[in-house]
Automatic annotation (TrEMBL):
Recorded GO MF terms: ATP binding; ATP hydrolysis activity
Protein name from the UniProt record: ABC transporter
Highest classification ranks of the organism: Bacteria, Bacillati, Actinomycetota, Actinomycetes, Pseudonocardiales
Keywords for this protein: Antibiotic resistance, ATP-binding, Cell membrane, Membrane, Nucleotide-binding, Translocase, Transport
Any one Gene Ontology BP term: response to antibiotic
Membrane topology of the entry: Peripheral membrane protein
Pfam families: ABC_tran (PF00005)
Predominant location: membrane
SMART domains assigned: AAA (SM00382)
Keyword Ligase found: no
Length: 308
């Protein structure tokens, strides 16, 4: 098997009595974009910081481009770009000075002026860092992570706090990087970001992987169809509803009070479901035919909200 961009197995990291990462496994292929998604405190930043070599794992193994991020950090550093959560810079440094400084440390940097332009920062290139807006500071941090032409970039919530227009610029740039064969591992709270950009989405909760896969495959039901969902009181007799449907359909209560009918949904199936509910004196609320969102995938798997 070829060397992965990132390979993590059985990763554990605790802070005092808090187990931030609890046996996490993940493999990210070279040239792909992987989005780590999960609620606050799920262990995403801790995992990324271990990959970056800033934190040591308590147990498990981590390989980044085939190397140990702590013991082989000097070999790894020139090949990896990092954008930490919240960014940061000398407050008085101007945007273009900052980027040129970082570029001067790289063997074959990208053109800083081009990068500022692509990220919509050309008009503020002479503005001191502390006077940039939050979204502009974020974009400058991203530019700093990318200017060294890294093979792999770690981006911790790269578009947090950005307006939709700035976010779109970043998405376009990340798409272009991926097309160029750069590997990108990002964390995000934005489902639409993960769905729009990622080859692989890894949903993390309590320091473990809950589910992973291509966004398309996660949002389809288990039969590869869009499926039908509705809400009603808990503990409907799903076996009875399954029996009312043609062969090949399956109904389950994916979370308390949320029902999923898996299979190819046509008008007849919708009519059968609503007629069955009427017979039971049940009102099917939020009845919906179509792919699940990643939010719903998480809710169905954990019974909790992803954004919580
Ligand atoms: N340096 C630290 N000292 C103590 N506890 C920490 C430290 N860093 C993280 N934690 C705890 O570890 C858990 C995981 O935190 P982490 O920052 O990895 O989560 P996250 O998924 O990145 O969350 P968010 O989406 O809010 O950034 C949390 O309970 C957090 O409070």
């Amino acid at each position: 098997m070829s060397v992965a961009a990132v390979e993590i197995s059985g990763l554990v990291k605790s802070f005092g009595s808090t187990r931030a990462v609890d046996g996490l496994d993940l493999r990210m292929e070279r040239g792909s974009l992987l989005a780590l998604l999960g609620p606050n405190g799920a262990g995403k930043t801790t995992t990324v910081e271990i990959c970056e070599g800033f934190l040591r794992a308590d147990a498990g193994s981590v390989r980044v481009l085939g190397l140990d991020p702590v013991r082989e950090s000097s070999a790894l550093r020139p090949r990896v770009g990092i954008m930490p959560q919240g960014g940061g810079a000398y407050p008085g440094v101007r945007a273009d000075e900052m980027l040129r400084l970082v570029a001067s440390c790289a063997a074959t940097p990208l053109d800083p002026a081009w990068l500022l332009d692509v990220l919509g920062l050309a008009p503020v290139r002479r503005t001191p860092f502390k006077r940039l807006s939050g979204g502009q500071q974020q974009r400058l941090s991203l530019a700093c992570a990318l200017v060294g032409r890294p093979e792999l970039v770690f981006l911790d919530e790269p578009t947090a706090g950005m307006d939709p227009q700035a976010r779109r610029l970043v998405w376009d740039l990340l798409g272009a990087l991926r097309a160029d064969g750069v590997s990108v591992l990002l964390t995000t709270h934005l489902m639409e970001e993960a769905e729009a950009l990622a080859d692989t989405v890894v949903i993390v909760d309590h320091g473990k992987v809950v589910v992973s896969g291509a966004p398309q495959s996660l949002t389809m039901d288990e039969t590869g169809n869009a499926g039908l969902r509705f809400k009603a009181r808990t503990r409907l007799d799903t076996a009875l509803l399954t029996a009312a449907l043609p062969e090949g359909y399956a109904v389950r209560e994916s979370a308390p009070g949320t029902y999923v009918v898996a299979g190819s949904i046509d008008p007849q199936v919708v009519s059968t479901v609503t007629a069955w509910c009427a017979q039971q004196g049940v009102l099917p609320e939020e009845l919906q035919v179509g792919k699940r969102t990643l939010e719903e995938v998480f809710l169905e798997l954990t019974g909790r909200e992803l954004r919580a």
